[in-house]
Each structure stands twice: as structure tokens, then as C-alpha cells.
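If you are new to this repository, start here. Below is one unmodified record pulled from the training split, so you can see the exact layout before writing a loader.
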Amino acid sequence: MSDRVEFVCNGELVAVDAEAGEMLLTVLRERLGVTSAKDGCAPQGQCGCCTVLVDGDARVACVTPIARIAGRSVTTLEGLDEDVTGPLAAAFVATGGSQCGFCTPGILMRMVALRAKNKTTPLDIDRALAAHLCRCTGWQTVYEGLGAPAPASTPRSLSNAAERASLESGNSQRVASDIPLGHGGFADDSAPRDSLVAVPLPPGSDAAFVEAAGIRWVVGQSLTEARALAGKVQGRRTTVEVRPPLPLPPLPPGGVRLATSWVEPAYLEPDASWCEPGGVPASALANGGAFGGKESSPVEGAARELADRFGRTVRTIFSREDVVRLGPKRAPVSGAAVFRNGRLAIAGTALGVLGPSPSSYTFGLDSAWEAILPKELFASPRLRAAGLAEQALLVEGAIDAAGIARSDFVDETGPVLLDTAVLEASGASAGARVKVDGSTGSISRIEVRVSAGDPLDEVVLRSYAIGATHMALGWVLTEGLAIDPETGVVHDLTIRSFGIIRPKDVPPIDITIIDDGGPPLAASSDAVFAAVAAATWNSISRSEGTRPDTFPALGTRASQMLRR
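And here is the target side for that same chain:
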């Protein structure tokens, strides 16, 4: 059954034959070719990437039934004047408020609605951003782009900015005024809308499928049809408590121990590709690295294989639930460390796949980290900073517990800060200090110093460092994923169930960039992630008088440290 629905889209009257229950987002993207509205979680309505204006009010298009739009006016970024979008996009480029650019179109639309209603106080912006999710920037640069005081900047080379962004993301990335507007070249934006569409077969579905690239796919004439044939069911948030799947080791006298949980990388753009018969599939990594999570995504190989099999162009698309079920995770570890007689001893266990398959390793200070927790244990492909941050926590925790002054063995003129972690990744290094308000127990400020050789562009480097800080805080304090320890089945399938820190709860973050005159170094944000995670863990120990031995640290007041 279909109903004809007429409405005004970006100033033009349009009419569509909508399917029963169809949402505004699929009409915009699939029928009208309006791609600034992004599908990050549809139809969960939880990421804000598909925000548009309906009669001037901000609405999340993926949960807005098209039947309710009849006779109304819809505006997307494409329908706004350049004198509106230009300054907003320029502000986000100037502050580093956009990296991959997938989430920012929705954020900009929300800001346009606020400004039209003259609701631009800090409280207004806090409330507005609560409807959005950004995994890359850590939010501080987004606030700056929306009108908060921005850091002073010198004239920039956007080619240098793109080079720094590519070094940090691990993949080709552009920095330009069209990126915040959603024109990062995302695979599914460029796909022909008359293509066949393939979606993964959901668990428990008895739909007919075709296997390609190790995945069972349901193929339809459109995205709506493919998901209907597959019997896609919106994911839910479980009531199961997040628990580390590995048991804690014995606590060594004077040492530390830690068990972490599964963590979802939560990149905003779901895996997608498309390919013509005999062609080259569109990259799933259009404008960013997805934290390493898409380096071995099956969507590209499947698109090519299915296109050749059907003799037609095929789009392969993950839903948010597919990303969580099928994508790599930050794997749990359980370890203990102690610093004694000038020597560090650590024992650890790691899980590398969904399901119970631990392997144990014991080592001393002179052992190579790769021999302790091999990269392949963490995920395939390995997520960014996997191994490095776990090492940082155990090493720095043991040093902190032993009361050893870092000034005894580090150079204070470099990235290190007093009472902090100092890590290296690909030659880049970072130090962090977490300050806690003694009267409230909340984090009052985070200070980070980072050295990455030639910064190339301090705005981009600062944005990545702030984003890494946000992710590190979440890993320690709030983030976790409920997964059945026996079957490996993921219970938490909504993007809001991962525990990602809300915009208004992010403490002030100060970034100091050290230019040591050397060549540009990659992945400095990995070092920042590890340094901030270790410094946060140590700060909990000092402020609480006890050190949490599981992540997320929900069993102590630690989870309240972000409330401002």
C-alpha cells in the first residue's frame, strides 16, 4: 500500500508515493536525492545526523512519518541560503568543529533553528546538542564553532590541515568549507538510487539471502524493500548490567589491577559501499578513518561480488544494529601491575573476539608490548590505540601507586606534565593532567600537551586531541557494551546505550602543542587517548581514596566526576 504525499521541500512542491509507515529520511535520501540529511542510526532517532527543519522547527527525519509531513514545508541544508550556511561552515573549519563531517549537517540545522528563534544562550545550546552525537571532535570545538570563544588562529594552509587530519585519521581526509555541510564524499551519498540494495540478514530472520564476503545479504529493489524483506527490527537498549567478561587477577601488594569491558567504537557513518558490475567499489572510508573500525569492512568486497552476480549496480548498507553486531570492538583486558625494586611486573589477559577465548601473558619491564598483548587479539582490524592505552593504564597506575615522581625519569620540557601519563605512538607523544575540584569531586579541567613533530595545522591537531580526550574519558568513566559472555551476542544495539559522554558533561580541555621542529608524526591522538585515560584513572585514585578496578568505573563516584 502506498499513499501520495505532497509537501514543499526546499521551496519546491513535491509529491511522492510513500510506503505505509515510511519515514521522512528515506523519502529525502532515497526518492528526492537530498543527501545532506545523514542516516547514522535510523530509525532509532538518537544521533541527530538527519535533523531537518519542518515548518521551521528542528526534527529528526528518521522517526518523522512522511504521512505527517503532508502539506508542510521541509528545509534541509540544500535549501538554505549561502549567507546562512557559509558563515556556519567557515566557523566549523576555523575551530576544528568538523572532522569527517557526517554529523555536522544535523548540528548546523539545529543551530539554524535556534538562531531563528533567538535561542542562543549556553543553556539553549546545551539542550539542543543533547539531541546529537559526535564521536570525532569531543564537542568543545563544536561549541566554539557555534559561537563560544574560539582559539586565536593564524592564516592557514588547508592542504597542511588535510595532511594533519590524514595523519591522525589514518586515511585520506579533506579540510574544506563543504565538509561541515556533509560533502565528504560518503559512499552511500554517491550511490545511484536505482541500484539494487543489499542489507545483512538479521539474526533469526528466515528471509532468502545471498552470501558474499562472508556475510549473508538480503537484496531488494530499494533500501525500504530490502529492510522489509530482511525483517529488520529496531535495536533496543538492554537492562543487562555492563560487566567486564574477564575475572580480575589477584591484586599485587602495592600494585594495581584492572578489568575493562567491551567498548563500541561508535563511528557515526554506518559501513556502506556500492559497485557497478566489473567496477571498483566505493570506499567505505570516504573522509576519515573510523578509528580503524572499517579497514576490513566487508561492504566493499560484497558490493563488487554482488554487482557481478546480479549484473547490476548494488549498494551494500549496514544499519546501526548491523554495525554493532558485525563491527570490531575495543576488546576487554584484565591485568595487574606492580613497580618494585626499580622493575615493573605485569600479568594480563585479553579477549580478541566476541565470545570467551582468553589468552594469558606475563612479562617484565624489558619485554616488548607486542609480545604481551598482540594486536590481533584486540580486533580485526585493530582499533586505534588498542594495546597502547592498556599498557599506559597498567604502567602509569603502577608508578602512581608506588608514589614515584615522574620527574625522576622524564624530561619536564617535553610533553610530560606533573602527575601524568606520558605515552608514545608512532613517535608522537602526549602527557595529560586531570584536575579535580576538591569541593565537588568533579573534573574541573583537563590539560594535555602533545608533540607530533611539525604540527602542520594546530587547529586540526587540537581538534583531534580534544576528541581523543573525550573518548578516553568515556572509556574510563562511562562507556561499556553488554555482551553475552557465553554466545558473544551483543545486547546493547542503540547508539545511546554505549555510554558516550554528553556534550554538556565534557569538562574544559586545554591543549598545548609542542613544535619540536621535526617531521610531521602520525597518530598523536592515539598517544593523547592513552595519556588521558591513564591520568584519569590516577586522578580517581587520588580524589576518591580508592582506585576502581573495573571500567567503566561506575561502582564509585568516578562516574559523577563529569557532572558540572
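Two things worth knowing about this chain: The domain at 82-185 is CATH 1.10.150.120 (DNA polymerase; domain 1). The chain has four domains: 2-79, 82-185, 188-233+271-317, 382-560.
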